[in-house]
Amino acid sequence: MKPVLEGRDVSRSFGGLMALHRVSFQLFEGEIVGLIGPNGSGKTTLFNAITGVFPPQEGEILLDGKPVSRLKPFQICRMGIGRTFQIVRPFLKMTCLENVLVGIVGRDEKGTSREERVEQALSELEFVGLGGQSHRLAGSLTLLQKKMLELARALATRPRVLLLDEVLAGLNPSEILQALDMIEAIRVKRKVTIFWVEHVMGAIMTACQRIIVLDQGRKIAEGPPDEVRSNPRVIEAYLGGADA
Amino acid sequence: MSEFLMFLTNGLVMGGINAISALGVSLVVGIMRVINFAHGEMYIFGGYLSYQLAVGAGIPPVLSMLCSVAAVFLGGLAIEKWLIRPTYGDEMYSLIITFILSIILQNAALLIFGPYPVKPPSLVFGATNIFGLFHYGNQRLLSLALAAGIIGAIMYLVRRTWFGKSVRAISQDREMAAMLGVDHLKVNMISFGLGCALAASAGAIIAPIFPVTPSGSGAVSLTAFVVVVLGGMGSLKGCIVGGVILGVLENLGAAYISTDYRHIFGFIILIGVLVLRPWGLFGKRI
Amino acid sequence: MKRAGLAGVFLIAILVPFFLNQYWLHVAIISLFYVMMASSWNLIAGYTGQVSFAHAAFAGVGAYTSGMLALYGGVHPALGIIAGTLLAGVLGLGLGGLCIRMGGIYLSLTTLGFSEILRIIITNEEQWTRGTMGLQIPGVFSVYSKTHYYFLFLAVTLAFLVLMRRLLNSDTGLAFRAVLNDELAASTSGIDTVRVRLMAFTSSSAMAGLAGGLYGHYLMLITPDIPSLGQMFLVLAMAVIGGMGSFAGPIIGAIALEFLSEYIRIYGEYHLLLFGLVALVIARFAPSGMVGLWEKIWRRR
């Protein structure tokens, strides 16, 4: 079976600093794979590389076997890679409906009317539980609602793969449960493959089938949660070395 | 031949002035990512204050120059603290604010000083024979020497002092510098004040040769921007080289091609560099 | 409620020539010019976050193109204005193409350079433009009537604003605002941000060309003051004080400031200084301008 998303020897440096060093990974359809590592290990850099924000300087990213590394971020999105951000970034001065509409407009499909797009946007909002909030400004939402809005906007772009960047950060336990339900719903009902960076260990260990561990720009472990949890190198990376 | 040498040396003198002026802009752009549109106004305030103190208050010329530069430095500190810092690094708003500030200062200068050009007294008189090839005014030579001296002082500042080290750290990697404990706020404020002071010193130095007028401030700002872009944003070397190149080109161009279009060379260089090689001669590749 | 308000404003606008004398009617016409200028500048600065200093220059392109075509080529001003608009749009596309990618400071500096180059060329090519002495060009109407000009300007301005409104409410407008709010999030949501900003820049420059062409044929004497940074500042101040990023802001700012500057002119040429001070205070303390302040007061009730 061919992977949906694949990275081969992805490398990226900033100034003299090697942020990613020959990182390779594969995600298969329908999977939910976690990406963990201490601060500064390159997790968000890898996401930025995949989405074309800071493209890889060496190596390749492939979506369904097609290389996407040299494309611009908006093109990569249209090909089917969506993302959310570590610090949530909805369009604050626009309404929830407009936020999601941007995702739909971004798909750049001809032939849909305004009404159809609005309907699609409303159904995405319903899906994430913001159905009643369509006319509220994104800036006035709670943190959890903003994260849900970001998810709705990303879903509106009809991604094959969704990159979640610390989506649980800042949420209280009950909110975390709601978010986990939503992520699972996205994976199952919308058939999206999920690649998930997270610090909330408990959640990611239970939700993911497979975990990849980065440390200082290198992949140091990969496997089912139990294996990774007891891997001495992983433990050392978190407890021992440079936790900047 | 001696005529050509004279134009060339004029170009060098202007080049030195351009360099100092550009250093003032480059420092602020490199540290704060802010373009100070009011730069030209600081320059003419340097000239005008120097004149007012020397002629109006009878203070010795050297002292009036120093005092006017100091006054503009303090003004720059205040502007950074109250007008620019609150924009929290929003490039658009800081641009707009300095642009508005420049209009305010320009009109204020017209009101306070009047539209007539003023010329502070020269510090030295007479002319020197350069290598037996041509005669050149001593005041101009002094200006060149002062400009070189200031450049030297800035280079020392950047290489040896804590301020200089902070500046270099920030311009290389902002986040790293913050993590290492560099006091951003203080560095920003001093940088801006210094930027304004450099503009004022350029104005004060050139004023005994070419009188300053409030309506000339726009051209000064634009020239400084051109030099910074040509030399490369954030590069000290670039300011010097760019300043000299522009000074020489403009003077030779005005002398041999056309005086009306003398300022257009600068803008053509500006756009050309921005389009073909935005990081200029010595800037960091983006 | 809003409709009634708009209808009222429209009614007043139509009746203006009947209760203003010639001098103030002139001021009203000029303020309509600035409404077009400030609104179109707002499209790039307020709605897509790019501070261009070339706006007045594009108005100059419109004015001089149309004026020279009419004077030397006998072209009817209506056609000339269209030509000026198109040329401004093409130049905007070119200039934008050069500097949109770089954005921010680089864009501002490039537009500044462009503006000054244009002004220097216009000033120096006296053979064609008569430089600072000004170029006398024919008006739109064979018989001069301020009232006619007023209605012409009103009609064009209204059409202008309606078009802008529709643009902003369209998908393109949505993309504009997304780019303004958060360019990174917009690009990862599939928006071609460079293309969006370029479209905004090009349409905005064409609009400035249109406004400039019309303005030139009204004044019938065009000077290099039109494409100057002083004019650029006025347009900027009107947008800032009125409220950048809102639709009504630049409109209100333009009308208010133009009428105000005429009042102040009675006391002396202080209007630039005064506007500068007000604009500074607003940019510093109330970045959403008068419209923003009004909305805040309204919300408190």
Instruction: Based on the coordinates given, report the CATH architecture of chain A.
Output: 3-Layer(aba) Sandwich
Kindly provide the name of the CATH class of chain A: Alpha Beta
Q: Determine and state the CATH class of chain C.
A: Mainly Alpha
Low-confidence stretches of chain A: none
Number of DSSP E strands of chain A: 10
> Tally the helices of chain A: what do you get?
9
Helix proportion range of chain C: over 70%
**Ends apart, CA distance between termini of chain C:** 17 Å
The biggest beta sheet of chain C reads: 2 strands, antiparallel
| Number of helices, where a helix is a run of at least 4 consecutive DSSP H or I residues of chain C | 14
Helix content range of the residues of chain A, please?
A: 25-40%
CATH superfamily of chain A: P-loop containing nucleotide triphosphate hydrolases
Instruction: State the largest interface.
Output: B-C, 35 and 37 residues
Biggest pleated sheet of chain A: 6 strands, mixed
- The CATH architecture assignment of chain C turns out to be Orthogonal Bundle
Radius of gyration from the alpha-carbon trace of chain A, in angstroms: 18 Å
Count of domain modules of chain C = 1
Description:
The complex is a heterotrimer of chains A (244), B (286) and C (301). Chain A is an alpha/beta fold. Chain A has one domain (5-239): Rossmann fold, CATH 3.40.50. Helices cover 37% and strands 24% of the residues of chain A. Chain A has helices at 43-50, 73-79, 96-106, 114-127, 143-156, 173-189, 201-207, 225-229, 232-239; strands at residues 5-14, 17-27, 32-36, 58-63, 66-67, 81-83, 161-165, 193-197, 210-215, 218-223. Chain A has a six-stranded mixed sheet, with helices on both faces. In chain A, strands 2-1-4-5 form a four-stranded antiparallel sheet, with helices on one face. Chain A is globular, with a radius of gyration of 18 Å. Chain A starts with a strand and ends in a 5-residue tail after the last helix. The model of chain A has no long low-confidence stretch (mean pLDDT 89). Chain B has 286 residues and is mainly alpha-helical. Chain B has one domain (2-113, 136-276): ABC transporter involved in vitamin B12 uptake, BtuC. Chain B is built from eleven helices and two strands. Chain B has helices at residues 2-32, 39-56, 61-84, 91-113, 138-160, 162-172, 174-179, 184-206, 217-231, 236-256, 262-276, and strands spanning 127-130, 134-137. A two-stranded antiparallel sheet of chain B has the order 1-2. The longest helix of chain B has 31 residues, at 2-32. In chain B, 51% of the residues are buried. Chain C is mostly helical. Chain C has one domain (16-300): Orthogonal Bundle (ABC transporter involved in vitamin B12 uptake, BtuC). Chain C contains 14 helices and two strands, in the order ααααααβααααβαααα. In chain C, strands 1-2 form a two-stranded antiparallel sheet. The longest helix of chain C is centred in the C-terminal third of the chain and has 27 residues, at 193-219. The mean pLDDT of chain C is 88. Chain A binds chain C through residues 51, 53, 72-74, 76-78, 82-83, 85, 89-94, 98, 101-103, 105-108, 153-154, 156-157, and chain C through 171, 174-175, 177-178, 180-182, 184-193, 245.
